[in-house]
Amino acid sequence: MRFPRSCGTLLHPTSLPGRWGMGDFGREAHQFLDFLRESGQTIWQVLPLSPVSYGNSPYYAYSAFAGNEYLINPEKLQGQGLLTHRELEEAELPEQTRADFDQAYLNRDRLYRKASERFYGDMDREAEAELERFRDVNRQWLDDYTLYRVLLRHRDGAPWNRWEQPLVQRQAGAMERVRREHEAEIRHETWLQFEFYRQWLDLKRYANRHGIRIVGDLPIFVAHNSADVWAHPEYFTVNREGDRELVSGVPPDYFSESGQLWGNPLYRWDRLRDRGYDWWVERFRQMFLLYDAIRVDHFRGFEAYWEVDAREKTAINGRWVKGPASDFFRVIERELGRLPIIAEDLGLITPEVEALRDEFNFPGMKILQFAFDNDPENSFLPHNYIPECVVYSGTHDNDTTAGWYRSAPEEVRHQLRVYLRSHCSDPAEELIRLGVLSVADQAIFPLQDYMSLDSEFRMNRPGTAEGNWEWRFTREMLDAIDTGTLRDLLRMANRTPHSPAL
To answer: Which of 415, 420, 439 lies closest to 431, judged by CA?
Structure first.
């Protein structure tokens, strides 16, 4: 699908400022959307909004369908009469440029419990009907997810394949028993999802009213310790006991000499195909309820994926296995229509992957930080672009552009300076200008690069387990961006809505 010529920002909601230890869907999110509109931008790209588990990674989630309850804004709950001003004050944390996830989770858990109890205690017929509609629409994933989260908590976070065998096997009697035992907690988990969806969709409507599209992120694989694999083990490479047999990863690449061993169970694509890819159809349907477009992470895995024995310690000893390819996307298109999808086509990309991407007219990604290796045919150089692509300075996995430039080999920095005919005193500003003026239909840049921030403020370091996903900005940092100059640049590049001729 062809996208309009436009520009936007990559920013996860946890990076927003706010009073409760991490960003959420509160007033600061609306103010960020106002910044986008004022600067002429029409895209907000986020990372997955799924409920996070180990390491706070949005790419390692408890569910492919549920939302991260910690993005629920407490102030909005106060506005509904579910929390008091004093309760909010007691949960406040210092505003910093790193999220304090641990304390934020503890404080928010206490607030959410109080709000949930008051919601159910004071629920009128209108609220009850709205909740019941939500349950009916989402029942195919909601019931399994809420029970899974309750059982996970009562088993100190132990993965589902370490639970009692009747629950691992999802025996009807055992499932009914635990549903009765934990009815109140299941109601609480249901309310959390109800409120997450309500707040997020309200925020999305605000964005859309102001001409801003939300681009979501769909990771191809799901976590082993998730409601998805527990509820549908037949679709994944796990044995009868729930243990992983084959797992995902990528071979050695730019980011890691030993490859990346992600550890997610792989799909049993033959079984999914026999069921008309029903689980995937519902997943895409849910994604396009939440977002206006999506970036499909690790798109190449649909053509061929790196298969590793679960007993391996690195991703080196794996093999490429063919995926469902065109058959899969034809079914998705038949069921849901032509969808606005961006293909994350980075890494080891073959002609077959490119053919699959182009068959369905999915734009690929161009990363400017990968462009300057003295190869004039480098596909990341702007003079090699076609319009049907999305240009980025870097992604959430890259260093900030200022940090990248500072640590890059001198020959790379020299190539950039020659290409731009510039001294590159502000490399982030230079790459943004280069991307904005390119032929790429869409230009999206991490907020850190609009602020010219150094490596200290990068979002993720692939292959590391500590200190990732924590970056936050302050209101003062956002206010320092010259929105007028940025808007003029976007207007000159024909990337603002109804840009007039120069």
So the answer is: 420
Domain count, the chain: 2
Please report, for residues 66, 389, 458, the alpha-carbon distance to residue 293 in angstroms, rounded to integers and kept in the order given.
Answer: 18, 14, 24
Tokens of 171: 């025996």
- Which residues, in sequence order, are CB contacts of 234 under 8 Å at separation 6+? 268, 271
Span 399-409, mean pLDDT?
98
pLDDT at 501 over 70: no
Task: Supply the Cα-derived Rg of the chain in whole angstroms.
Answer: 23
Burial of 320 (0-12, 13-18, 19+ CB in 10 A): middle
Output the pLDDT for position 238. 98
The answer to whether residues 268 and 194 belong to one domain is no
The verdict on residue 136 lying in a domain is: yes
**Rounded CA gap, 231 and 175, in Å?**
11
Residue 411 shares a structural domain with residue 483: yes
Over 194-247, what HEC string results? HHHHHHHHHHHHHHHHCCCEEEEEEECCCCCCCHHHHHCHHHECECCCCCECEE
**Spatial CB neighbours of 92, under 8 Å, sequence gap ≥ 6:** 19, 20
Q: Do residues 68 and 481 lie in contact, with contact meaning Cβ atoms separated by under 8 Å?
A: no
CB 224 within 8 A of CB 263: yes
Residues 295, 299, 302, 307: is their CA dihedral positive or negative? negative
Positions annotated as catalytic residues are 297, 344, 397
What is the CATH classification number for the domain harbouring 169?
A: 3.20.20.80
The partner residues of 367 in beta bridges, in order of sequence, read: 392
Q: How far is CA 38 from the centre of its chain?
A: 25
Tell me: do 72 and 16 sit in the same domain. yes
Do residues 201 and 238 share a domain?
A: no
Are 120 and 207 in a shared domain?
A: yes
**Angle at CA of residue 434, ends 431 and 440, nearest 5°:** 115
**Hunting for tokens 């994350």 — which residue is that?**
344
Domain that holds residue 327: 232-282+297-340+350-361
322 & 368 share domain: no
Per DSSP, 333 falls in state H
Residue 227: inside a domain: no
Return the number of other C-beta atoms located less than 10 Å from residue 53's C-beta.
17
250, 155: one domain: no
Sort residue 69 into left (φ over 0), alpha (ψ -120 to 50) or beta. alpha
Judge if 290 and 335 occupy the same domain: no
pLDDT at 500: 45
Q: Which token pair is 371?
A: 């462009």
**H helices present in 262-324, as ranges:** 269-274, 278-290
**443 within some domain:** yes
For 212-248, the pLDDT digits (tens) are 999 999 999 999 999 999 999 999 999 999 999 999 9
Distance between the two ends of the chain, CA-based, in angstroms?
A: 28
Residue at a domain's end among 330, 361, 392: 361
Q: Is residue 468 part of a domain?
A: yes
Which structure tokens are listed for 205?
């409507």
